[in-house]
Design goal:
Mean pLDDT: 95
Keywords: Transferase
CATH architecture of the largest domain: Up-down Bundle
EC number: 2.5.1.18
Oligomer: single chain
Number of domains: 2
Helix content: 40-55%
Domain GST N-terminal: 4-84
Shape: globular
Radius of gyration: 17 Å
Protein name: Glutathione S-transferase
Number of helices: 9
CATH class of the largest domain: Mainly Alpha
Number of strands: 4
Distance between the termini: 42 Å
Strand order of the largest sheet: 2-1-3-4
Pfam families: GST_C_2, GST_N_2
Largest sheet: 4 strands, mixed
């Protein structure tokens, strides 16, 4: 099988890159990483040289280009059906896809007000309307899925659904948005993943600063 190549942006800021990266890394799928930093005010023109959308992430495999985080996870799940990217049980798999799509399409108040920023010191912001409603819904999802599966992750073992929510873990922590014990327990499980720690270490070592993402 030809190698997978995943094009990503800055690890400190690129939430959409983080999702497929931690999905592949966390499930033991080998891939080559190519980081193109968006260290220009309007991004980086090098991204347009490889990506049809001008954005990352982008997966390239056997001449095929796959973009958008969830599409990349789905493609990898088809290539590696035993890697655990989705739960084996049909109902759990349907719920995993449902909450992943909800993450993809929703929570805009939280995402807009609180950009992912691995290096950010923990501190609160004055939050616009809608942010805490998003946080409450996310906590409900995590609570219900872990109650059903028994944890420690949303569907027992780490999966693509956890990967889709990985940047939210960072947001809830660095903007000091949650205090419930079960929420913090899930966040701790995510942050204990070797894949998470590998990404975090690299993010903290990056030289680039993007002022627009320094909330």
């Amino acid at each position: 099988m030809d190698k997978l190549t995943l094009y990503i942006g800055n690890k400190n800021y690129s939430s959409w890159s983080f999702r497929p990266w931690i999905a592949l890394e966390g499930c033991g799928i080998a891939f080559e990483e190519v980081l193109i930093p968006f260290d220009f005010p309007a991004g980086n023109p090098r991204i347009r040289e490889v990506s049809p959308t001008g954005r990352v992430p982008l997966l390239v495999h056997d001449g095929l280009k796959v973009w958008e985080s969830l599409a990349i996870i789905e493609y990898a799940a088809e290539l590696f059906p035993d890697a655990g990217l989705w739960p084996r049980e049909r109902q759990a798999r349907a719920m995993a896809r449902s909450i992943s799509m909800e993450m993809l399409a929703g929570f805009r108040a939280l995402r807009n007000a609180c950009p992912m920023n691995i290096r950010r010191p923990i501190s609160r912001l004055d939050l616009p309307e809608g942010v805490m409603e998003d946080v409450a819904r996310i906590e409900t999802i995590w609570r219900e899925m872990r109650a059903r599966s028994g944890g420690p992750f949303l569907f027992g073992a780490f999966s693509g659904a956890d990967a889709m929510f990985a940047p939210i873990v960072n947001r809830l922590e660095v903007y000091d948005l949650v205090s419930a014990a079960d929420t913090l327990d899930y966040m701790a499980a995510m942050k204990a993943l070797p894949a998470w720690q590998k990404w975090e270490k690299a993010a903290r070592e990056e030289p680039w600063i993007v002022p627009e993402d320094e909330a």
